[in-house]
Amino acid sequence: MSKNIRFFLIFILGFVIYYFFDLFYFKNIQHFIKELFRSKALAHVLAYTITLIPIIITLKILFPQKKIFNLFSLDQNVLKGFTLAFIGTFPILIGYILHFKIAHTLSFESLFINTISSAFFEEIIFRAFLIGILFRFTKLGFLSSILFGSLLFAQVHLYQSQNTIELIEIFAITFLGSVFFTWVYFEQDFNIWAAIFLHFFMNLYWEVFNVSENVSGNFYGNLYKLLSIILITGIVIYDKKKKKKTFQITGKTLFIKTREVQS
């Protein structure tokens, strides 16, 4: 068996085990911990941490010499990721202040779960593992690497509505959002903190202000998101050109990589 086939078999098997472990046991683990510690937020974090075990084992089998923090890209510059996300999402903050009222039904635990916990673990699972590992350590290019992960990322957000039109809108927005987060993650020298904080701030402003009942949003809700995406894209491109760094995503890395990436 060739190394490539072995790699993909172990990778796929590891993710499938994680997926069904999460699907069938996440809520039970979360409920058990919540009853034990009387904290919904703590239960959410610990349930995510426990269901990550199959992914961590998979990475240790594939890369026995590498550290998990490196494979999840958590060893990158936290401040750099935070700064890009904070500045880049400023149009959202200003726009929402101008057009929406502050929500009056916020609870700390719900806010924590929908911002910090969800942003961190979703980026680790989808961006760093499911998409990032494939792009960094195989010959798969950008589009080849993101397809399945972004489709799955979009699918897990469909619970937010039962309306057909809204389902299509939610799927499209979250799929494109996954592609954008991945591009930022890759072009920031595989700094997962950039994607985590982008996810965090976007979720935070959406939760703090009465924007919409689900991610499909409305005109102003999506307008300021689009302005932030344009600003972030400009900042990333300007920074890369100023420092004369090679772009990770080019014609040579779009489908099948014809050159190695710096991971």
Give an overview of the whole structure.
The structure is a single chain. The protein has 263 residues and is mainly α. It has two domains: 1-65; 75-253, no CATH class. Helix 1 (3-37) runs antiparallel to helix 3 and helix 9 runs antiparallel to helix 10. It is 73% helix and 0% strand.
Tell me the helix content. over 70%
Rough shape? Answer: globular
Number of distinct helices = 11
Name the poorly predicted regions.
Answer: none
What profile does the largest beta sheet have? none
Number of strands: 0
Q: How many separate domains make up the residues?
A: 2
Secondary-structure element order, as H and E? HHHHHHHHHHH
GO molecular function: endopeptidase activity
Pfam family, one: Rce1-like
Domain CAAX prenyl protease 2/Lysostaphin resistance protein A-like: 111-204
Protein name: CAAX prenyl protease 2/Lysostaphin resistance protein A-like domain-containing protein
Provide a short characterization of the protein structure.
By secondary structure, this protein is mainly α. Helices cover 73% and strands 0% of the residues. Helix 1 packs antiparallel against helix 2, helix 6 runs antiparallel to helix 11 and helix 8 packs across helix 9.
Core attributes:
263 residues, mainly alpha, 11 helices, 73% helix, globular
